[in-house]
TrEMBL record:
Superkingdom of the organism of origin: Bacteria
Reactions listed under catalytic activity: D-arabinose 5-phosphate + phosphoenolpyruvate + H2O = 3-deoxy-alpha-D-manno-2-octulosonate-8-phosphate + phosphate
SUPFAM superfamilies, A to Z: Aldolase
Descriptive protein name: 3-deoxy-8-phosphooctulonate synthase
Subcellular location per the Swiss-Prot or TrEMBL entry: Cytoplasm
EC number: 2.5.1.55
Length: 269
């Protein structure tokens, strides 16, 4: 997928690529600070990098959960990140109309896991001509994702990749089946969503939990199994994040993690 992104750096480094940033855009300073730090680290290790931030959080546990600061306001912040730092950006969309709106501001449109079977949404994203990432539904087998990928291809867009984010295991846990990485690579590049794979949804409190202490374990396994890219949500203070703080990586731990992952990548090439 990254070969289609003209403004991505380190394409020829033979490294995995990284999609990373906050779960949600909370304000401009936060987005800029996070992007600047990640770019500093990824430049050091020559890792191709895409900035991620959700402009709107539609899949929430409770009606009073944080959903965003305003659609266009958040999208303009994401666009400013790209303009200031010269990196590609991505955000997730939830409605057909979001495809054309978000495509004005970002380089990659992400389809959420719960919506990956929504044909109209997938087609709307594909027809913008932007790169499209499809999160594998927690309820889908790896092989079933070829049909979602085919919807993008049949819409005249070959800029598509799949994001693995675990399978539902009981009511409040997710499990990653790493056999799915090579299986899905038969028809698409595969990105491992490290942090969402460690979510613990459907908590009695109405707030999604997580197991961030296992981020390094999942990330190492993903690189060892040959994932093309990693997806990591990070925040300077996860406990104060307005969304998904329970499973995000503290920003000050990203450098050490990527250093280890780069060494694993070198070992398997």
């Amino acid at each position: 997928m990254i070969e289609h992104l003209e403004n991505i750096k380190h394409k020829n480094s033979k490294n995995f690529f990284l999609i990373a940033g906050p779960c949600a855009i909370e304000n401009e300073k936060m987005a800029m600070d996070i992007a600047e730090k990640i770019i500093e680290i990824t430049d050091k290790y020559q890792i191709p990098y895409i900035f991620k931030g959700s402009f709107k959080k539609a899949n929430r546990s409770r009606i009073d959960s944080f959903t965003g600061i305003g659609d266009e306001k958040a999208l303009e912040i994401i666009w400013k990140v790209s303009e200031k730092f010269g990196v590609p950006t991505t955000t997730d969309i939830h409605e057909n109309a979001h495809a054309a709106l978000a495509a004005q501001f970002v380089d990659v449109l992400q389809i959420p896991a719960f919506l990956v079977r929504q044909t109209d949404l997938v087609v709307a994203a594909a027809k913008t001509g932007k790169c499209v990432t499809l999160k594998k539904g927690q309820f889908l087998s790896p092989g079933a994702m070829k049909f979602a990928v085919q919807k993008v291809l049949d819409s005249g867009n070959d800029k598509v990749a799949v994001i693995e984010r675990g399978n539902t295991f009981g009511y409040t846990d997710l499990v990653v089946d790493f056999r799915g990485v090579p299986m899905m690579q038969q028809f698409s590049p595969v990105i491992l969503d490290v942090t969402h794979s460690l979510q613990q949804p459907n908590q009695d409190s109405g707030v999604t939990g997580g197991k961030p202490q296992l981020i390094e374990t999942i990330a190492k396994a993903g690189i060892a199994t040959g994932a093309d890219g990693l997806f990591i949500e990070t925040h300077p203070e996860p406990k104060s994040a307005k969304s998904d703080g329970a499973n995000m990586l503290p920003l000050d731990q990203l450098d050490g993690l990527l250093a280890k992952l780069v060494r694993i990548r070198e070992a398997i090439l």
